[in-house]
Design goal:
Blueprint (H helix, E strand, L loop, with lengths): L1 E2 L9 E9 L7 E7 L4 E2 L8 E10 L11 E4 L2
Antiparallel strand pairs: 1-4, 2-3, 2-5, 5-6
C-alpha cells in the first residue's frame, strides 16, 4: 500500500510519522517514524483487509502535529 500526502509549505517540518489502525474501533499504532517525505510504502498489509491511516508532521524541535485527516484503504 503506497501512501502519499500533501506536504506543508513550512520549512520547520523535517519528517512525518505514519499511523495505522485496522478499523474505526481501535487506536492508531505508529508504523513509521521520521519518514523524510512522501511516498511511504506500507508492506505489512493483508489482502482483503481495510486499514485507516493518518500522518503527523514533526518539526525541527521534535514536536509532532495532530493527526491528519484519516484515509481508509481496502487492500484487494
Amino acid at each position: 500500500m503506497t501512501l502519499n500526502w500533501r506536504t506543508p509549505t513550512s520549512d520547520s517540518v523535517v519528517a512525518y510519522n505514519i499511523y495505522r489502525r485496522p478499523d474505526y474501533s481501535s487506536a492508531f499504532v505508529k508504523i513509521a517514524s521520521r519518514v523524510p517525505a512522501p511516498p511511504y510504502e506500507d508492506r505489512l498489509v493483508m489482502n482483503g483487509r481495510t486499514y485507516i491511516y493518518a500522518v503527523t508532521a514533526v518539526d525541527q524541535s521534535g514536536y509532532e502535529s495532530s493527526f491528519s485527516a484519516e484515509v481508509r484503504a481496502t487492500i484487494p
